[in-house]
Write a structure and sequence with these properties.
Elements lengths: L1 H40 L5 H10 L1 H10 L5 H21 L5 E6 L10 E3 L2 E3 L8 H11 L2 E5 L2 H11 L3 E6 L1 H13 L4 E5 L12 H7 L3
Parallel strand pairs: 1-4, 1-5, 5-6
Antiparallel strand pairs: 2-3
Helix pairs in contact: 1-3, 1-4, 2-4, 4-7
Length: about 220
């Protein structure tokens, strides 16, 4: 009788494993399709459900992309735009005085005279890059503006000043990490990707930046 019960238990466990495997497979394929659809069209289907799906199945969806010889950076690009889409409505409700902008130091000119402080690079508006003008424009609208060398500065500033909304500029991986960080802090955040990455003298579509912070 005991042996029979154990056999039945193994049988049920086996069926459960097969069912979960099939469920994960279909979920992965559906997630991959939705990512590609959103990348091609710029539209999102059931945005919040899609975000949960791709967050849970990120590694498997990227594996499917690699097997199909599809650039898996598409996943991060769609993930960023999806979070922007979801967060936008809550973001615009926050007064501009409680919104912070974090700009990466790699956008600075290679001859930038700004010095590092505990709250990032102190811009002196020397005119060597677009940051000085962007800082003035942002602060005139009420935003707090920071030029940061890394995530440790962002965490320190968030802890000290407790903003209610954030705009972050960076490479796709930095934006992904930043949006995840803001999600943990329950902060509506928008990510703006660099148009040309790297470690120094990177580039940003400034028109896109101004459009993002206009609301």
């Amino acid at each position: 009788m005991l042996a029979l019960d154990i056999d039945q238990l193994y049988y049920l466990i086996g069926r459960l494993v097969v069912f979960l495997s099939i469920l994960i497979l279909f979920g992965t394929l559906a997630g991959a399709f939705l990512v590609l659809y959103s990348f091609k069209t710029g539209h999102f289907f059931a945005a919040r459900l899609m975000l949960v799906c791709i967050s849970i199945l990120e590694s498997t969806i990227k594996s499917i992309f690699r097997l199909a010889s599809v650039d898996d950076s598409i996943f991060d690009d769609v993930g960023m735009h999806l979070r922007n889409y979801i967060n936008r409505k809550e973001f615009v409700r926050v007064p501009k005085e409680r919104r912070f902008i974090f700009m990466p130091q790699c956008l600075r000119s290679t001859v930038c005279p700004g010095k590092l402080t505990p709250e990032g690079i102190a811009c002196v508006d020397c005119g060597q890059c677009g940051i000085g003008e962007a800082k003035k424009f942002s602060e005139d609208k009420g935003y707090k503006f920071f030029i940061v060398p890394g995530s440790s500065f962002i965490k320190r500033i968030i802890k000290k000043y407790q903003p209610k909304a954030i705009v972050g500029v960076g490479c796709p991986m930095e934006i992904k990490e930043g949006l995840d960080l803001c999600h943990r802090y329950k902060l509506p955040a928008l990510g703006i990707p660099l148009s040309e990455g790297g470690c120094v003298a990177t580039k940003l579509d400034w028109e896109q930046f101004y459009d993002f912070i206009h609301d």
